[in-house]
Amino acid sequence: MNAQKLLSIFIIFAVLTCTLIAVGCTETDNKNDIVETEQDEENIVSLDEIIDIEWQWSGLIETLPASQSVVPDPENYTLVLKSDGTYSIKADCNLGTGGYTLEGNDLTLAPGPITLAYCGPDSLDNQYLSLLSNVTTVSMENDQLVLGVGENGDRMLFVKGEVVEQ
């Protein structure tokens, strides 16, 4: 009977130890989550930083395959986010508008009406429009607007143009 009592106490002790270890691991994970959340909140782009500015597409950083390209005429590829939740774009010889949603640093550009003129063989209008339709995030780096595209980590870089009057 003593052996049975001793075995029961050992089992209870083992279960209690495993439970405390599991709780300890969970608390550590939660603390890391809190730190990550605080860091994410610090990096959230303020709408005031990005609206009513003509952003000019200046470059593209692609991850697969790794490459970086410069847009030859940034003033021909613009994006203006407006305070009413709409945007306007210039894609070389084409103009368009649409709506956007910004939640934290998640940005979605909903397509709207756009002209469909042929801008010539050297135009980047189709690439620009395709990239904009896959935008997922927004951030600011060194006074540049950075739009994350797709799931590969590709990034569109924009420089400030003119402030746009409402």
TrEMBL record:
**Record-linked Pfam families:** META
Output the InterPro entries linked to this UniProt entry. DUF306_Meta_HslJ, HslJ-like_sf, Hsp_HslJ-like
The UniProt record lists the DUF306 domain at 69-157
Q: Which UniProt keywords apply?
A: Stress response
What is the designated name of this protein?
Heat shock protein HslJ
Q: Which organism is it from?
A: Methanococcoides vulcani
